[in-house]
Amino acid sequence: MTSPRAAKNNQPTPGSPSSGEPVFLAVGKLHRAHGIHGEIIMEVLTDFPERLVTGITLFVGNAHHPVRLKSRRWHNQNLLVSFEGYLNPEAVRSLVNQLVQVPAEDRPPLPEGEYYHHQLLGLQVVDENGNQLGHLKQILETGANDVYIVQPEQGKEILLPGIDSVLQSIDLDRGQIVVHLLPGLLPED
Hints:
Helix content: under 10%
CATH architecture of the largest domain: Beta Barrel
Shape: elongated
Strand order of the largest sheet: 2-3-6-5-4-7
Radius of gyration: 19 Å
Number of strands: 14
Number of helices: 2
CATH superfamily of the largest domain: RimM
Low-confidence stretches: 1-18
Order of helices and strands: EEEEEEHEEHEEEEEE
Structural class: mainly beta
């Protein structure tokens, strides 16, 4: 079985529909103006930056203001981007510290056994015997593997490593993650 992995940087946004699917997914965060021609530094928050092509419509901020990508180029680990209608540093300053998003339905499909974080958050976590452990509250990205934070109904959070020997199956239709509890994974009371 391949490791159930989650694609990073696609966290749910406030106001997600009750189905758990967000309307928009963050692909970047705008930082500061760069130069005199309306470019702005964008931190990349997606595993698929190649999909951010010129001419694509992106949505900025909580109001999901539509902007059309005019240009993009790599600058260290970030992208320098410009948007149609934003011709100088003064114009792009209104976009500073805002998220750049795409509609959720435009997300690329992932290989079998991989999931977007927002698909997993809130799922019920049970052990192999069907005992409910809680709901997946958060996914931490570490250097070695992701760490799944499970919030039980009562008691301390449970930290589970996102590795094959722990994550047995993920069933989005049932809303459930089945795990194998290695010794020492449950907090002591």
